[in-house]
Amino acid sequence: MRKEIRGYEAVRNAAKDFQTYSSDLLGDRDVRTYRQLPLEADPPRHTNFRSAVQPLFMSDAIAKHKDAFEAHAKSLIQAIDAKGGGEISSEFALPFVIGCLTIIYNRPQDYDEWLSWGPDVWTAEVHRRGAESASSETVHRERNFEMHSDRDGAVLQEYLDRVFDHAEQQVRTDPETQDVWDFISQIKIDDKPINRQEMQGIANVLLAGGRDTVIKLTTGLIWHLIGNPEDREFLAQNREWFNRTIAEMVRYLSPLPKMERVLAEDIHVADAERDTEKYVLLNFVSANYDRDIWPDADKIDLRRDRKPHLAFGLGRHSCMGMNITEHEVSALLTVLLDSWPNWVYATEPDIAWATDEDKDGNPIRFIDRFNKLNVKVAK
User: Fold this and answer.
1) Which residues have C-beta within 8 Å of that of residue 220, sequence separation ≥ 6?
2) Most CB atoms closer than 10 Å: which of 121, 158, 278, 289?
3) How confident is the model over 251-288, as pLDDT tens digits?
């Protein structure tokens, strides 16, 4: 059994100690052969790549899309209302996240294609074939890091080959007309252009990283607001509480339960030769459910004092998409609360719960995923 680091302080310390617990490893080993960048690198390589892509994630760069985010959310809400109800994960959360990404990345032409991939790029082919969703085994892989047959990187790889071929053939340098792939294809590190594999590594983070995370957050937020009208009313009267609300929901949902680290003595061993059973897991669920920090950690409390959770990681490897998440979900909350669509549960929410242990060996119960969240418009 792999070593796991559990508890708020222990995970915080390990996340900052990249010299002992390195991110220099290949994840998703069943579906890709290149590193996610800057995620799967240590300083100085990590620092160089993070600095290069940071302009895409600056708060000002995302905030300018607020009106577009709100318009997109409003159109999706109206579509569900027109039918008298719908399923939130597939009919609202997924298209909302995809639509926001096309806005941020200036790729409106990709909306239908990205939507066809479903909630996880690694199960895009399964989704396209009409499967209900990625299997429960596949979803659980984020916790146990085993490999499953319904995961495949071919769909994403074909897309990346196509868009980077185009970006390199038709070079666009005007920031006003560039899309995200133009920008990435022209990145230089130490005055040297990055290679195709490095381009793919960055693109992988942009398309695969955070996709199911924000879908889960969006679905979970609507689930909570339907079931807790007093919180809905509180937020409607206290808009300054939006970021605290997002932080509490992200803590509670902990979309990325665990993350791998490689020990220092194995850093110089090639990926293919490493014994991955020696990898260490940072248990973010145990950190976000640490009862020494949040005595009632298994409850959603939008009014609690804000304390820094670890659902977005920490320090050098904190999630670059935090600003995107906050602006997208703030836009969603604005639209929902300005004119609540009067949604109620059409059926009992179908939630897959998971269990883990805290640092003291006590059980933790948390939401793995929302299988179905069917709503209807109350009469």
Assistant:
1) 249, 252, 253, 367, 370
2) 289
3) 999 988 999 999 999 999 999 899 999 999 999 999 99
Residues 226 and 350: their CA atoms lie apart, in Å, by: 14
What pLDDT score does 379 carry? 80
CA distance 321 to 83: 33
Mean local confidence (pLDDT), 51-79: 95
Task: Give residue 243's pLDDT.
Answer: 92
| Residue 329 and residue 315 in contact, taking contact as beta carbons nearer than 8 Å | no
Contacts of 1 (CB under 8 A, 6+ apart): none
Task: Collapse the DSSP code of 154 into the 3-class scheme (helix H, G, I; strand E, B; otherwise coil) and give the result.
Answer: helix
Interstrand relation of 188-189 and 363-372 (parallel, antiparallel or unpaired): unpaired
Residues with Cβ within 8 Å of residue 27, at least 6 apart in sequence: 36, 39, 40, 260
Query: Tokens for 332?
Result: 């969603």
* pLDDT at residue 138 is higher than 50: no
Distance CA 325, CA 302 (A): 17
Torsion of CA 273, 276, 279, 283, to 10 degrees: 150
Here the tokens at position 326 are 């906050």
User: Which pLDDT score, from 0 to 100, does residue 318 have?
Assistant: 77
Distance, CA of 27 to CA of 36 (rounded, Å): 8
Tokens 């973010």 label which residue? 284
Q: Show the domains of the chain with their CATH numbers.
A: 4-107+207-377 (1.10.630.10)
pLDDT digits (tens, 9 = 90+) for 217-256: 999 999 999 999 999 999 999 999 999 999 999 999 998 8
3-state secondary structure of 300: coil
- What's the start-to-end Cα distance of the chain, in Å? 53
User: pTM to 2 decimals?
Assistant: 0.93
The amino acid that residue 274 corresponds to is: R
> 367 pairs with which residues across the strands?
353
Pull the structure tokens for residue 73: 């959310």
Query: What does each C-alpha distance from 305 to 259, 292, 293, 295 come to in angstroms?
Result: 27, 14, 11, 12
Give me the phi and psi of 22, to 5 degrees please: -85, 150
Query: pLDDT tens digit string along 274-325?
Result: 999 999 999 999 999 999 999 999 999 999 988 899 988 887 777 777 889 9
